[in-house]
Amino acid sequence: MAESTGDAASAFWKKKYYVIITGASVGIGRALAQAFSREVAQNSVFVITGRNAENLNETKRLVAQDAPGVEVVAQVMDHSTATFDDYRKLITDTWSKISAADGILLVHNVGTIGDVRKYATQFTDEKEIDDYFHLNVTSVMTLTSAFLEKFPNSSNLSRTIINISSLAAVKPMAGAGIYCTGKAARQMYMRIIAAENPTVTVLNYSPGPVDTAMQRELHHGVKELAEVARGNRKDASTHGNVLQRIHVH
What we know:
Pfam families: adh_short
CATH topology: Rossmann fold
Distance between the termini: 14 Å
Number of domains: 1
CATH class: Alpha Beta
Protein name: Sepiapterin reductase
GO molecular function: sepiapterin reductase (NADP+) activity
Subcellular location: Cytoplasm
Helix content: 40-55%
GO biological process, one term: tetrahydrobiopterin biosynthetic process
């Protein structure tokens, strides 16, 4: 499942890009960082974020191995507490590392599944709910706002935003209420961004069931989702589809 807008993607690859990928310390985020780094021009700058410094530095090492001409900035960041001002600073501090960029790319990959042992009506703790949505929705909104504030239409840069989505954004799954709600909110938010910013290429991309630690936890807690995924799992290194989407749209 993917939906996109904009026409900048036809000239995306082999250009000098400034890229931010959240949640890049493991899994899909790491695979995307590696895949994208092989496609951009030398002297591109990749900013990767995550909470685990060791894993994040491993992603940095892998990207440097795949694309030695790309500069990688590994920024330890907790998106569950990050603010708009934090994102402003992140972008300001790292944008200075690139000169004469052809375009910019923001990938919203960070996310959690929440407590899959609970049904929707069992979420009664307001703080638990607020914390979940700050990480999975609010941080996406504030980072996007900081990104588009820094790079408005007048910047004349090719601007692309990718949201890593899920079947859960459109299919209700018993036992995954907070996860489905968060994914649906993110997907709709990105559609609004596309409607309000027609010169920005926006892609809601669902890679399908991917064999990551988070997905295994979700399968364990939610039998219905495990049934959907059975026989259709992919390794996190399977990144060709999203590359093709950017080429096509």
